[in-house]
Specification:
- With 344 residues, the chain is of the alpha+beta class.
- It folds into three domains: 77 residues, Antifreeze-like/N-acetylneuraminic acid synthase C-terminal domain (Type Iii Antifreeze Protein Isoform Hplc 12, Alpha-Beta Complex); 155 residues; 49 residues, no CATH class.
- It has eight helices and 14 strands.
- Strands 5, 6, 7, 10, 11 and 12 form a six-stranded antiparallel β-sheet that branches. The chain has a two-stranded antiparallel ribbon with strand order 1-2. Strands 3-4 form a two-stranded antiparallel sheet.
- α5 packs across α6.
- It is elongated.
């Protein structure tokens, strides 16, 4: 073999061996990359909503809570655990709607004593009315701002005969929200316990029509409060959805649906009232309302004392007052007479 060719062959072999060894050391010596988990910087605890809080919601201990929040996302307007006084936040009112899990900002709450506090506590189209209560009619002081109550009217219907008057109590408004007791819109807490105190007035959130009913009811009889259970709102809401009385808007998002349900649960109810008479309690009491038709004399007295219609000048009104029996008014020309039923 030619010496020159042999040298070239040996050189190629050396280069091949060197390349193989370098490649081997490269693959063996290289270490596999290590996966490092991204470290989230844990920040302080901020106050967040535990559920959807629509406008006018009174803050209670179960509606908000402190939760860990990323440090880079903490804003100056947030309530920070250790800096915010939770006792001062209880009883404040939500000014803007807050979704579940969203941090509560300082500008989103209105504190008692601030301008427009009570107006912010009212829902759209609602009114605030105040009624007097006592320890007997106010559930012994166990009614706090944010609770829901039923309104009961107790009255005595005078008898128009020699029988006993009708004694009755009826529930004429239900699920009415309490805005304040006396002039306080917050609950007093001492050593972690809610303080029960007596109050003389209660401010309620109602519709304009309900406000009119309450004012009239105070002149008719005695008003009393009946404290509602927290479970009643949900059970009545489920029943209303089941029977089709309440329908969730089609295409509503989860947040919109939660807000709709919260508004429906807090809405006062006017209608479907119940009542109990003395006859339902004692067999010696009257069960039905006095019937004037059953006593002609009482009916005639009631008719005679009622306001009479106005007639044109010159019209005869000599027979406008009926002393007994049922009558029919007959007008012939300019003369009006009252004819007894069954008469000639």
């Amino acid at each position: 073999m030619d010496k020159k060719k042999l040298m070239l062959l040996l050189g190629a072999l050396v280069i091949a061996i060197g390349t193989a060894m370098a490649a081997r050391s490269l693959f063996i010596g290289a270490s596999a990359p290590k996966a490092e988990a991204a470290q989230v910087q844990k920040g302080p605890k901020v106050l967040v909503a535990q559920r959807a809080l629509p406008v006018g919601t009174i803050i209670t201990a179960d509606s908000v809570a402190f939760q860990l929040w990323p440090k880079d996302m903490v804003q100056d307007a947030y309530f920070i655990d250790g800096e915010a006084d939770m006792n001062k936040l209880l009883g404040t009112v939500v000014r803007y709607p807050i979704t579940a899990g969203q941090p509560v900002t300082q500008g989103g709450l209105v504190a008692p004593g601030d301008r427009g506090f009570l107006a912010a506590a009212l829902g759209a189209g609602m009114r605030a009315v105040t009624i007097p209560v006592s320890a007997k009619t106010g559930v012994g002081g166990f009614v706090f701002p944010g609770d829901h109550v039923d309104l009961l009217l107790t009255q005595i219907v005078p008898a128009q005969d020699t029988g006993q008057p009708l004694k009755t109590t009826e529930t004429f408004l239900r699920n009415v929200r309490v805005l304040a007791t006396d002039q306080s819109t917050e609950t007093t807490v001492e050593e972690g316990k809610t303080v029960v105190r007596a109050f003389q007035t209660v401010t309620l959130e109602v519709t304009p029509k309900m406000a009119e009913k309450i004012q009239v009811a105070q002149t008719v009889g005695t008003l009393s409060l009946a404290l509602r259970s927290l479970a009643d709102n949900q059970s009545e809401l489920d029943q209303a959805i089941a029977n089709g009385t309440l329908k969730i808007p089609a295409g509503a998002t989860k947040d919109q649906e939660e807000k709709f349900m919260a508004d429906a649960a807090n809405r006062p109810i006017d209608g479907g009232s119940t009542f109990v008479t003395g006859g339902d309690v004692s067999r010696f009491q009257r069960r039905t309302a006095p019937s004037p038709e059953a006593h002609p004399q009482a009916m005639a007295q009631s008719f005679a004392s009622a306001p009479q219609p106005a007639y044109p000048r010159g019209t005869s009104t000599s027979a406008t007052i009926v002393r007994s029996g049922s009558v029919v008014r007959v007008t012939r020309g300019k003369t009006t007479t009252a004819e007894p039923v069954g008469g000639n």
